[in-house]
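Workshop exercise sheet. Pairs work together: one partner reads the sequence aloud, the other fills in the structure field after running the prediction. Swap roles for the next sheet.
Pair: D.N. / O.F.
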Amino acid sequence: MTNTIFALSSGMPPAAIGVVRVSGPHAAAALQALAGRLPAPRRASLVELSDGEGAPLDRALVLWFPGPATATGEDLAELHLHGGRAVVAAVEAALGAMSGLRRAEPGEFTRRAFDNGRIDLAEAEGLADLLAAETESQRVQALGMASGHVSRAVAGWQERLLTLMAGAEAELNFADEDDVEVGEVVVQRLIAGMAALAGELDEWLARPAAEVISEGLSVVIAGPPNAGKSTLINALVQRELAIVSPVAGTTRDVIETPLALDGIAMRFSDTAGIRGEGADAIETIGIDRAKAAIDAADILLWLGSPKAAPDHPRAILIAAQADRWKGDAAAEAEAARCDLTLSAATGEGMDKLHRMIVEMARTLLPREGEAALRQRQRAALSEAKQCLDIESGSREAGDLILLAERMRLAATALDRITGRAGVEDMLDTLFGRFCIGK
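Structure field:
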């Protein structure tokens, strides 16, 4: 028999309220032992809780949810206690003393919801991301995943694929029946259906990856020595993150810090000044790392001559340190070729830079209402697409058995997004990300 588990599901005490959840076949008996009765289902009841010896524990609100229509798919009880440490500890001790009950492991409530079919794998991943969300864009993306946005799309693809597979099976097994279409017409219809589905999967694969939202966009500040890079990153994060010095080569490594702009998670990096001559061995290593960071950047902030700017698809050319060169005709002519004029010391241009970064970042994020896929989901979807891609005129295009096998493999790949196909080790890793009471 499945163990009955319990855990504190709210924040650590002290707090106004402490919510203890109990899930499993002995949940009803545990609640009755504490409260002296089993309350009406799905209605909050105010009761006096007592331990096994009759000693009072707390005056609390309790809720009883008989399975299987519960969050975990099994009998579930919630105890809404006063959130003091002693109160919560006493109630947990009383539950731990009962036969058949034990403390929950991390993520075990959500794992049971998955095992009992209350949520699928994609929704569980979305819930994990929702618990970890720190910015508005992370919250919106994770909420869509947890609410089944991806799962509904996969269900639609599976239904269409099942229809195609049924057509192939009918041709293979019942071609001699009078009411079954046969021949080239059926094959071409299957190939067209597979191509249409592959095209739709390709559109999803072209969307930004979910990791861009959860881990943050990479924004790299680069340019020659003494261009004002460290001053700019200090101004952006509003603290002394990087050392500012007139000595060339002061910054010798990539300094990274997380920062959210308008609810979008980003990772800003200050880099070593890029120059061709005069750098010592250590500074040269820093320059190489700066160039690697530029290549990997989602957005590049270039503080230097526009002519020397790296070839980057999303570069903002900045005429920095404007407080120093205003009135210099040559400097002003070069600044005119940049995207904006900026002085981190005086604040000139900082608001415009903020807007430009955010506008550029939004082009890298999913549009409103779109769901992004995690790396695991993208890999499964890519495999399904490859199975559905049939080269015109190939041997497979004329072999119904091979077409049927490709569709079966595509269905298996799609099932890995929401199902159980070969995911046991990954499930242990996933649900281990959750807190104890979730």
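Discussion prompt: The chain is about 45% helix and 15% strand. What would you look at next?
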